[in-house]
Design goal:
The protein is an alpha/beta fold. It folds into 3 domains: 2-44; 65-166, Up-down Bundle (Receptor-associated Protein); 197-329, Aldolase class I (TIM Barrel, Alpha-Beta Barrel), CATH 3.20.20. It has helices spanning 25-34, 65-80, 85-94, 99-113, 118-122, 131-143, 146-192, 205-215, 228-234, 281-284, 304-311; strands spanning 2-9, 15-22, 38-44, 49-52, 55-58, 197-200, 219-222, 238-244, 261-266, 293-295, 315-316, 323-325, 328-329. A 6-stranded parallel beta sheet has the order 6-7-8-9-10-11, with no helix packed on it. A 3-stranded antiparallel beta sheet has the order 2-1-3. The termini are far apart.
């Protein structure tokens, strides 16, 4: 009997693939029909591939080291126990994990039943059984010590498997380090690296949009008399600066959309920002919601902690307080 690979449709029209032992392909087709299946293709398992309705199923694909080591150990144990070779091959095929390995082993068994040596039978699956493997099997058969050779091959393939796993583990560690490093860099570039802010005063909206596009600005900070409609039309992330002169100006906050942050600064009739003047805490006390408020105006190391603890604003602007002179920051 030989092993045959088949492709068939069951009663529900589902395509199935597998391996059966029979004397001929015709007998396999009849066995499939007896199950109520429609045979699509039947070929000797060791001869290549089953092809059906646009899909290819190759039986000549290689076998990984772990599976080869397992099969060799099983075969060595059975042969050493004086079990006939064809029965040992049948037992190994029955314990195979998937149809591909089962078909390979049944194909080898079929060739052995036809009178071929084990080494010759293994030649039909060169990608599953390497040249050295087949040569050692041939030497064992010719010397009459197939059981001892199979035992040595089992030890060798298991050692090769262990070595391969150690190499993979050794390569895994630097790969993990590289992945973590890449994630850290991405995190730094996304969340830590400062965003680019463009500051404008009563500039034309087309000019602002053009500069934002060219310079890849993340935030637009407006220090002029830009209206809520202007800010909404501009779009994107916007900080609107408002110089507080009195409590009535606080009501202007509600005119701006909720996604626009309000930067409040000390009042100056001429300069639109960067005066270094202290903002009135009396006015700050009149603000009820600081969830989108950025406090500026005279904020420095001597009062920033108290401001944050008291008001819990969205942000703090300390630019003017850390300048040696206008526009020059003291990073110390």
């Amino acid at each position: 009997m030989s092993a045959f690979s088949y492709a068939a449709l069951d009663e529900k029209g589902k395509q199935l693939r597998g391996v059966l032992e029979a004397d001929s392909a015709r007998q396999v087709r009849q066995m499939l029909r007896d199950k109520g299946w429609v045979p699509l293709a039947v070929e000797v398992a060791a001869d290549g591939a089953v092809r059906s309705s646009g899909s290819n199923w190759s039986m000549r694909r290689g076998m990984n080291t772990a599976k080869l080591a397992l099969i060799t150990r099983q075969l060595a144990t059975l042969v050493q126990s004086s079990m006939p070779l064809e029965e040992a091959l049948t037992a190994v095929a029955a314990q195979a994990e998937n149809n591909r390995i089962r078909s390979i082993m049944l194909g080898v068994r079929g060739r052995v039943l036809e009178g071929h040596s084990l080494a010759h039978a293994l030649q039909d699956s060169p990608q599953a059984f390497p040249q050295m493997y087949r040569a050692m099997i041939s030497a064992g058969e010719q010397s009459g010590h197939l059981d001892a050779v199979l035992e040595r091959l089992a030890d060798y393939t298991e050692t090769a498997q262990d070595s391969g796993q150690q190499v993979k583990l050794a390569l895994l560690y630097p790969c993990i380090l590289l992945l973590v490093a890449m994630l850290i860099v991405i995190g730094l570039m996304t969340f830590v690296v400062p965003q680019v802010v463009g500051v404008f005063v009563d500039q034309d909206i087309k000019v602002i949009k053009k500069i934002r596009q060219i310079c890849k600005l993340d935030i637009i900070q407006l220090h002029g008399n830009e209206s809520p409609a202007f800010c909404q039309q501009l779009g994107g992330q916007i900080f609107k600066a408002i110089r507080l002169k009195g409590g009535s100006m606080i009501r202007q906050f509600a005119d701006y959309p909720d996604d626009i942050k309000i930067l409040i600064d000390a009042w100056d009739p001429v300069q639109t920002g960067g005066t270094g003047e202290q903002i009135s805490f009396r006015l700050l006390d009149k603000i009820e919601d600081f969830s989108r408020i950025i406090i500026a105006g005279g904020v420095g190391e001597e009062n920033v902690a108290a401001i944050v603890e008291t008001y819990h604003p969205f942000g703090i602007d300390i630019n003017s307080k850390i300048e040696k002179r206008p526009g020059i920051k003291d990073h110390k």
